[in-house]
Amino acid sequence: MTLERKLLITVIGIKIALVLAVLFLFGEGRLIWADTEHYTRLGRNIFLGNGFSIVSGNGTVYEPTTAFMPLYPFILGFFSLYIPHGFAALALLQAIAAGFTALFTYRIGMFFLPSGWALTAVVLLVFEPLVVAIHMLMMPETLFVLFVLVFSYYLLRAASGANTYDWYVAAGFFALAVYTKPAAVYLIIPAALFALFAKNGARNALVFISVIVIALVPWIVRNHAVSGQYVVTTNASKNICQWGSTGILAVKYRVDASDWNTTVYLSEHAAIMSRCSGAADALKIFISEYPAEFTKLMAIAVVSMLTNDGYTVLFEKPADEQIKIHHNYLTPAVLVNADWQYKVKAALNEYNAVELTAIGIGKLFWFLVSMGAVAGAIAALRQKSMRRDALFLALVTVYFLAASAAAAGLAAGARYRYQIDAFLLIFAFVAAHALYQKKLLQLPETRDITDVDDPSTTLIYGRIIRKKPFLKRLYRDFYEQIKKLLPDKNNNPVIVELGSGCGFIKDVIPGVITSDVIPLPGIDKQFSVLAMPFPDNSVDAFVMLDVLHHVGETRKFFHELNRCLTTGGKVIMIEPANTLWSRFLYKHFHQESFDPSAGWEFASTGPLSSANSAIPWIVFYRDRAQFEKEFPTLQIRSLRPHTPLRYVISGGVTMRQLLPSFMYPLVKGIEIILSPLNRHIGMFLTIEIEKTERHNL
């Protein structure tokens, strides 16, 4: 059995099991979404002889509609009328569709990634909690995304010249996507441009467009007969006028976009709607009359989509209507409100600790995926072999983000991002794979480094730290953290920094004695930490940043610290942590060894080239009892894991910075919010040790 077949069968089997479990535990009603009833009525009207229509008046007048696409209502109507337990049956059918979603995500991923990496991206996609929920719910997204993926795969394959018939298949599934949701219709522009640059581009583009037009013409003609307009739908225009203007006014007046008393009922809103008959009118009004508000609206909506986990839908409460998936106060969209602090607090109070933990992990996950996707797209576009295909996927991603932000405004949440979740994960894994191969984002000045023990290498790293604002601010925060833990002495305490390198601790702690084992300009003393030139009981504090895990003779080092420290003196160090998140990064993306199963000692080949980043965890967690037995006067006062994001985003001393420097406070704020999870996600560990009077044995 091939890997693809195993993947398809496995995903379908698990998805069906999940549907059956939900049906058994909660019943068929759990499959119903807010719009399910409306779609079902539309579909039933088709089979009851009332055409594709909505009910108006007293419930007896059927008015043909051009605001919705017919495919999913048709399916819902059929299953609800003719299939026993129709919603349950359709949920099982969508489980099968989810299996094919996994298959085609894998196939697209193989254009950019090795098989194992593409498979991992697929697993994360199809079993992400919100995606699992979407695949069960009676809503068009499951089929729509499947059609978009199949269309994208065959278009990529067609462009490679594999088979002429691929153009027909791509066009057919494009038409199916449009018949499911109108959001796909304008994708014909990047798709046609992509076709033009393929082999026999003009002919292929003509074939592609012709098949789509032929498939859509009957529906367009029907809409003209109903509305007098040759259109695929009138809903898109309505959405951008309605929700775009609502969002703009919310931004302008700093009110809740979902509070119609302060947006929809404003005379300003009515004035906009009176002049807005379509997407072109809407964009013209927004750009010319509200340029600042429209720009801010689009930026907030896009960021909210990319970082919104959507997990609140899994824990929905019978509380205020505002605290729901579409108006989630736990997204950046809440910052529009003048009273955003109150709204955030109100939302937090809706969930218990377990729910908030899940929501926090979800937000962290999608933040990392989104940032990784940006880096991965850039990396793929830089590679000639991937450039054409990456450009198409990037255009599709940008299109859906922009279209959703414009059409839904501040209501654009995680459900809208689901349309491109597969592409985001593929690009994120392109970035991860490139990082794994140490190709992506490497700083030019570090590419030729072969000897990390050479003093010139430390000088290069020092210059990098100073010129990278993100990394420099992180180092300053580390120094400030160390400063707060220093012994409270007023009589000119002796403070020694070990392994100073080319840091700048004196900018934060003036008077500190800097040192290193290698000769470097600007340091005060050069010596080995195993034989320090200080008298017994003479040093009030030793401070160090990323030093302990480079010391091969750990016991000898602590004996030397103990000898030099005064009673009440401290050792304050910041070292790598051993958490679920840090283990993954240190093992796969860091050049230094990370072996939690090792002992305290390791062979030293050089002051920097030799290391085991797990040593701090080994000594202070795994073997803490042993440490306390061997060094009874060195009391461990605190162990605090922290900083899950900032170092990664800074790129360290070998990689480029991943985010603009002005976002440092935002990332730091996110870390503060995530701080309850630091024992699982922290990358660094602050260790505070105090020398006390010797215990009586």
Description:
This protein has 697 residues and is an alpha/beta fold. The chain has three domains: 1-139, no CATH class; 234-440, no CATH class; 455-691, Rossmann fold. Helices cover 55% and strands 8% of the residues. The protein contains 28 helices and nine strands. The strands form two sheets. A seven-stranded mixed sheet has the order 5-4-3-6-7-9-8, sandwiched between helices. β6, α22 and β7 (565-576) form a beta-alpha-beta unit. α4 packs antiparallel against α5 and α13 packs across α14 (291-307). It is elongated.
- Give the DSSP E fraction (strand runs of 2 or more residues): 5-15%
Extract low-pLDDT stretches.
Answer: 318-327
For this structure, the CATH topology of the largest domain is Rossmann fold
Q: How many strands, what sense, and barrel or not for the largest sheet?
A: 7 strands, mixed
Q: What is the total domain count?
A: 3
Structural class: alpha/beta
Instruction: Provide mean pLDDT, rounded.
Output: 87
Individual helix count: 28
General form: elongated
Main attributes?
697 residues; alpha/beta; Rossmann fold; 3 domains; seven-stranded mixed sheet; two-stranded antiparallel sheet; 9 strands
